[in-house]
Amino acid sequence: MYFGPIPNSPYSIADLTFLVNSLIDTTINPCIIHYEGETLIMNKQTDFKTGPLAGKNYDRFEQAMPWYNEIEELLATTLAAKLRGIKDPQVLELGCGTGLTTEKIMKHVPNCHLVAIDSSRRMIIEARKRVRSKNITWMHTDATEYVCKAISNNYDAVVSAFMIHNLTPEQRRMLFKGICNVVRIRGGWFINADKYARNNEAKHLADLADQLLHFDVFNDDPAYRLKWTVHYLLDEKIRFTEKDQIDLLRNVDVLNHVTCRFTFRRRMEALFSARIITE
Ligand SMILES: C[S@@+](CC[C@H](N)C(=O)[O-])C[C@H]1O[C@@H](n2cnc3c(N)ncnc32)[C@H](O)[C@@H]1O
Q: pTM of the predicted model, to two decimals?
């Protein structure tokens, strides 16, 4: 498919609807873009692994989303509050990336035993350099495979930041089933800082327009800006609202009981936490 240069002019909702619809009819992986004589191949499963958004450049994303630090900090302080009183809590982090979230978890829950997973070897290498702790076990593996195949359910909490929005709804369902498989049967937590669409579509599209404009922090590198823009437009194909998330958890058949809620939102990002009981 051809996806021409993204205009630098402000996006209107009509522009966005057009852009999103033009991608909706195409297969999500790979999405091939011709841009200024170059061919870019975007693939949601590998963009962060070996692809155009991988490696240390990834940390520049924070400039386009100023509350990145705040929401990750909030994820870690929420985790600390939920685990207060538990001796040596066991925590699983899915999609640790370069270790930004991991670092905050270890700051706020220093007594935890953390298993940090990422499907990208490159990301794990960066994360290990950033966070040095004998309480962390690093694993280069696929998150869904890990939780679905696990034979013990000894995690007090499963946390994740900005990994899950890359999954299709069906992949999310499999992942959540797996998460239920690894949390303690008498109760565990799932805490997720991620992209969640507002239930109101017009408001969501306004958020998207606003975010795309904020990618102007990458104007010094137009190709990089374009990659993030396309990544966000591809996310629209697997858009997941707050309501979808709550419905999904309520319908996972292995669950005995779940209480879940959203506690924070800025533009397209939100913090979600759920108490999961499978017994
Ligand atoms: C956007 S980054 C977020 C990293 C980090 N949590 C943060 O907030 O900075 C998403 C990470 O999830 C990883 N990832 C994507 N799909 C995965 C999967 N199925 N299993 C494990 N890791 C995955 C990517 O390699 C990437 O490092």
A: 0.86
